[in-house]
Amino acid sequence: MNLSPLQKARYAYAPKLPGMLRAGVENIGVSEGKETNSVADCDKIRAKFPNTYGKKEITFVKGKNTAPAKKQVVGVILSGGQAPGGHNVVCGLYDALKAADKNNVLLGFKGGPDGLIYDKYIEFTDDYIDQYRNTGGFDIIGSGRTKLETPEQFAEVTKVCAKHGVTAIVIIGGDDSNTNAAVLAEYMAANNTGVQVIGCPKTIDGDLKNEDIEASFGFDTATKTYSELIGNIERDANSAKKYWHFIKVMGRSASHVALECALETQPNICLIGEEVAAKKMSLSQIADDIADSVAARSANGENFGVAIIPEGIVEFVPEFSKLIAEINELLAGEKTAQFNALPDWASKYEFIKNGLTAESLKVFDILPEEIGKQLFLERDPHGNVQVSLIESEKLFALLVADKLKARKAAGTFNGKFNTQHHFFGYEGRCAFPSNFDSDYCYSLGYNAFMLISYGYNGYLSKVSNISKPAEEWVAGGMPITKMMNMERRNGEDKPVIRKALVELDGKPFKYFEEHRKQWAVKTAFTYPGAIQYYGPAEVCDITTRTLALEKG
Known about the structure:
Blueprint: H1 5-11, E1 28-35, H2 42-48, E2 56-62, E3 73-79, H3 86-100, E4 105-109, H4 113-118, E5 121-123, H5 126-130, E6 143-144, H6 151-164, E7 168-173, H7 175-190, E8 196-201, H8 219-240, E9 244-249, H9 256-265, E10 269-270, H10 273-278, H11 283-299, E11 305-310, H12 313-316, H13 318-330, H14 335-341, H15 345-355, H16 358-366, H17 369-374, H18 392-409, E12 419-424, H19 426-429, H20 435-453, E13 459-464, E14 474-479, E15 484-489, E16 492-497, H21 507-521, H22 537-540, H23 545-551
Helix pairs in contact: 3-20, 8-9, 9-21, 11-18, 13-16
């Protein structure tokens, strides 16, 4: 295999563990805390999880290991979209398993949950694991988006576990995957299978966090990768001085990525979906706000700028959400085929016009035609609009152009407005993990084994105090049910992990809010540069601005 110098160096990097995990497996004790309740809907969640609800939070401490000696055969899966550091979770889990007993086995089930259902796996060895240490991607065993949620699936998983003598399963995933982990853990307990289930918090979107989970892994690396690219574009914009760059970044359900990138790079504009929803802002209002920045900068002779747009922004706009809901209803069932069979856009528009309310048609009619057509592209598995396919960076650039055209006609704008469009998504999902994510993920995996060895089931691997140096991190676990509430999904009330949205009264947003008026008019760009792996700790081990502000 031909390796780059950086690959070779990263393979040799030794991730840092929390202080209490550094003494060796045999010297790690456990301290139990209080019993827990779910974040909401306690009675309903308890009824759904009678065997795993209300368990105690735990913290690992330096001390004698009192876990019963037992050979462990652990299965691990990667679930959902890629996030930098996933390989290190697997490596940390493997190293802890082998440190406890060289005869312990780690099976990697391939392609996500399907690997568990269809018995597709590899048994990890030192040589195999060593190829993936401190590297990005999920290619060690691949990932998948199948949901583990039906009794039939659980029965198949149980058969596979029995066949291989599996004692525990570690599910590395986001909020949906860890919701599935909680349901699977309850099934395993209710059916006395003896199989434990442990989750690890992953998502670059940053929306799997709470008072216990301070950050999901991958967010640090992804936002630093995007911020490097945005900084490069800012430098180019300030050099060429002729383009406004509209940049869409990942974040379907929350705007954490956009906010972090704004804190890192200080663009002229950054939209925060949660604020748009709270203020019930219309598309026209948002476009006017951006146009105000364009006009103010133009008056200073600066006909250039940078705007950051979160991927899911349109879902936060009340009028647009209503439009999407009506389109989903308009194309329900067989109506999609009827619509697709229409010969041209004119006839399709008549179909749309006759099916929408006057209010939603008004919103649809202000959309540029190419954006309107994107609302009728391929549906998701539930028959809904795939919002991620909407080019919102182009949408707002076009809406702003219309606003400025009207201002020019009225004699209130005399500048130039030329645009470039970008979407940063896949660029951040498989980057070489930062030192922070390398350390954090390795710790999550190592910690997951400790939870297994002490017999915990339905727990999330938890490493906290992570704004401090790794020596001061705190390792432990929390029942997944503590994070859950009931939500309406596909016409049913279901237990799910509550997504964490940007808090408008939180310190990261408040800092952004205090500075954005200045950034909107002045060129205050900052250029974070590439992720650094070697050098001073204040450069290489730096956390996100979000985490630094939250923990202050």
